[in-house]
Specification:
Blueprint (H helix, E strand, L loop, with lengths): L8 E2 L4 E4 L2 H8 L4 E3 L15 E5 L5 E7 L5 E7 L5 E2 H18 L7 E6 L8 E6 L2 E6 L8 H12 L3 E6 L4 H5 L7 E6 L7 E4 L2 E4 L15 H8 L6 E5 L5 H8 L4 E6 L2 H13 L8 E4 L2 H10 L4 E6 L4 E3 L4 E3 H15 E11 L6 H15 L3 E7 L18 E7 L4
Length: 413
Amino acid sequence: MTRKTDQNKTKGGDSPVVVGPQTEQMLLLGHPWVIEDRFTRQWPSLSSGELVTLVSQSGQSLATALADPGQRIVARVLGPPHLSLHRDWFREKVRRAQQLRQQHARLDGTTAYRVIHGEGDGLPGLTVERYEDYLMVQLYTRSWEPHLSGLVQALQEVLQPAGIYEKFRPQETRELEKKGSKRFSRLLAGTPVPEGYRVRENDLVYAVQLEEGLNTGLFMDQRANRRELMARCQGKRVLNLFCYTGAFSVAAAAGGATRVTSVDASPHYLQQARENFGLNRINAKRHAFICGDCFDVLPSLIDQGERFDLVIMDPPSFSTTTKNRFTTQGGTARLVALSLDLLEEGGLLVTSSNHQKVELADYLKELRRGALEAGCGLNVIHTAGQAEDFPCPVTFPEGRYLKYVMAVKGAGC
């Protein structure tokens, strides 16, 4: 007699693979990644997305993982040995993730937030973001592609969105940007997003783009930091470097800043920043928008005798312009030194980095180098990370990627 199988179920544990002692120790400590080494290179041929049982050299079953052959992270842990993926499993993951947000995330006046944060919600290598009525699934590994239907069904049942988009995020995004088309997303379910789509964050309105571009126009991980910053901007002259689409600039202006100067190398992003000002009924003409490389703009502002009460610098971990290349460990100190030359004594320097491989202690050393170069005192009064909807297991330090530091300029410059 032939037994019927559940078509919505993927059987786990069919492919036992042996891991080395170092990986075994990391797994026992709760780390969700298996990094390629001489043991994983002896694994049998696997398909991307195949479920495997990780086994110690002594034969002990350790965990079920999602295989990603040929990559640096060759497998991602999903749970205990012999786990099966099915619709109920996905639905429970989504339900628990949503419950965490409802109970612990401050989402008043907010319709855009992260629903699933990879390892923090037990789905390593993917994220799901909510943009009011629409969802964006971002894949950081192809190994999830064979299992998308189960995830989509669960998202529809629990969250009932109008549409669900999917985007693959390769490690080398610069190569992707060189391709002709900027349409990096595809519609998985539901209806296409309307043109001119907008969301709310902290009672402010921002335009987002779900179908084109690598990013949507709003980095949600800084939501709590923008909310905190707003309370400090009343009557201040604010400079926002690497402003992107102006989320920090809009928050500063809405918080009562007398003048916000936004700087970015992209005229396209600056135009979006102006539009976001308008969406919030803030007159962009009362503020300044400068298109240029920050390393060129800052000396120019210094020569012009400009002064600011608050400087924000939230650069990408890597960026290039015609003249300069920025990296967190290669440019932060210089940016800090230049910014301090523009900042009033007692003014606030707000700096941030999303570079996963730079710990907070090392990041603070970059700020120290910049302060010493400028000959200024710099006192840290506040540090933070990503918002509450970006949870991070204590067993996964790589997940604590965002460094947000607020410091006061002292005497001496």
